[in-house]
Amino acid sequence: MGSGVTLTSAVRNNLLSLQNTASLLSRTQERLATGLKVNSALDDPTAFFTANSLNRRGDDLSRLLDGVSNAVQTIIASDEGITSITKLIQAAQASARQALVPAPGSTTPTTLTGNIDFTLDPAVAAATGILSISVNGGPAETIDLGAHATNATLDAALIALTNVTGSINGGGFVELTAALATDSITITGGSSVGLADGTTPPPFSSERAALEAEFNSLRAQIDQLSRDASFNGNNLLDGDNLTVIFNEDASSTLGITGVTFDSAGIGITSAAVDSYQTDAGVNAKLAEIDLALARLSTQAKTFGSNLTVVNIRQEFTKNLIVTLETGAANLTLADANEEGANTLALQTRQQLSSIALSLASQADQQVLRLFQ
Length: 372
Fold this sequence. Notes:
The chain has helices at 9-34, 45-99, 151-159, 206-228, 279-332, 336-369; strands at 111-115, 130-135, 141-144, 164-168, 173-178, 185-188, 198-199, 242-245, 253-256. It has 372 residues and is of the alpha+beta class. It has six helices and nine strands, in the order ααβββαββββαββαα. The strands form three sheets. The chain has a four-stranded antiparallel sheet, with no helix packed on it. Among the domains are: 58-103 and 212-325, CATH 1.20.1330.10; 111-199.
């Protein structure tokens, strides 16, 4: 009201009522526009700051949910890694059991020993004939036995052989030894030095050798798979640990201890060369596999338990966020129906106040007519 302007009591009262109505209408329209009945601390300090606190905690928990979600995926990746490693080990187990089917071989090369017919005494008849030696059906090496009348000269000729190791041993016997366990030796003309003609069967199982190589190949795959079972740079199968935070002040956590589950970590050692040639060697690998499967099963249960806890806490956190946001909304959200009804009522009141103000001004207008 302007300074020095005098209003009648009726006009003043109607004007004040109209101003109050306009103020209420402005606040109601703000509530409808924002959807909030508490837009600032001036509207309701207690409700405003309580709602802010609830919303802040909800936001903090929402950010933590990202970490919890990553933890879930990390555990799942590790569990899938264990499942795949288990399948590889089971394949190695089947391979090892298959290796027990062929007859076991030998890791010792074939050695032929013959009783020599002559000694250092030149009076004894010398060996005669041509001794022919070949390995695996390859080119033959020959020794003219008639050219050697003593052990010493024959021993020198045997030592000169290239495809086999030959000599006369301390007992005066001719010895021919193959270079490899896979080699077979073919002899002809050796009767005069006690060596039976014919071909020796290879004492080595090629089937077992192939299965041995397959075992080592599967073992290498285990090493590679364990290194690949990571998520977001965290690998619980490669020695990494994981801490999952569940609340905003980090007072509620879950520590997940990682393991090193490469082949060495689960107790699977490399199959030594020719170790599959004996049943004992194969059974030793089967024993390692049984222990490894037990370790994997135990760790899978541990990861499964961890995953259950994290999933439960994840669901709890989601529900808690909804509860916090609902509580904040209950303190600050406006009822659109109520505010709409208030707007209509205030608009009606505003119109009536304007009419009342007009009526109150008519008395002053009557005085004005006296001067006309």
